[in-house]
Write a structure and sequence with these properties.
about 220 residues, alpha+beta, 4-stranded mixed beta sheet, 4 strands
């Protein structure tokens, strides 16, 4: 029996949960190895051998080590094309390009403001840190404007890259989940008809429900 791929990191991490959702969608067996970041385990010499920046996730598949969650997701889809959701990263060059452009939009346009909001609204209070209301307001405005673009796009197609669920949609799940469920910013998604439909559909996928269960079990 082949050794399952290993993912190093806590499932509560948005980047780790992105990779876990991809693995589950692709029906690829994996082993999750917890990393206690509070104790600095991600900065240990052994961990830095597989993740030179000391961040999570770190990913291993036999002799291959990778980092950066979106790159890992692409690798999983390319390495295991016949497993699980075969169309997760498209089945032809045009489909892949369409998915890639929306994954890039997520990484460059959605992730920055949503990450600030997740930290300020969900994590800062738990860490007893003062919230920066100016920063919150600025990034709410940025995200509201961006989701206006999504609203238009999702009026043209069921999902971001077309009519099939793909990595483009999956990549948005981690931060959007925190915004809706931990940061009390559900209205960012529910105030727009097409975005609300899209969010309801992608967040109810079995793969994501399993990731959320893993997150709950880790707390």
């Amino acid at each position: 029996m082949a050794t399952p791929v290993t993912v190093h990191g806590p499932p509560l991490s948005t980047a780790v949960s992105r990779v876990l959702a991809c693995l589950i969608e692709k029906d690829v067996p994996f082993q999750l190895i917890p990393v206690n970041m509070a104790k600095g385990e991600h900065k240990s010499p052994d961990f830095l051998k597989i993740q030179p920046f000391g961040q999570v996730p770190a990913f291993q598949d036999e002799a291959t080590s990778l980092f950066e969650s979106r790159a890992i997701c692409r690798y999983i889809c390319e390495k295991y094309p016949e497993k699980g959701n075969k169309g997760l990263y498209g089945t032809n060059p045009l489909a892949k390009a369409s998915i890639d452009q929306w994954v890039e939009a997520e990484g460059q346009s959605f992730n920055p403001p949503s990450s600030v909001l997740v930290f300020q609204l969900a994590f800062a209070p738990r860490m007893k840190l003062k919230q920066d209301q100016s920063l919150i307001s600025q990034n709410e405005t940025k995200l509201e404007k961006l989701l206006g673009v999504y609203e238009k796009r999702l009026g043209e197609s069921r999902f971001l890259a077309g009519d099939d669920f793909s990595l483009a949609d999956l990549s948005h799940l981690p931060n959007a989940h925190y915004l809706v469920n931990a940061a009390e910013r559900e209205e960012l998604f529910t105030s727009k008809k097409n975005v609300e439909r899209w969010w309801g559909e992608i967040s109810s996928r079995d793969s994501w429900k399993k990731v959320v269960d893993m997150q709950k079990q880790s707390t």
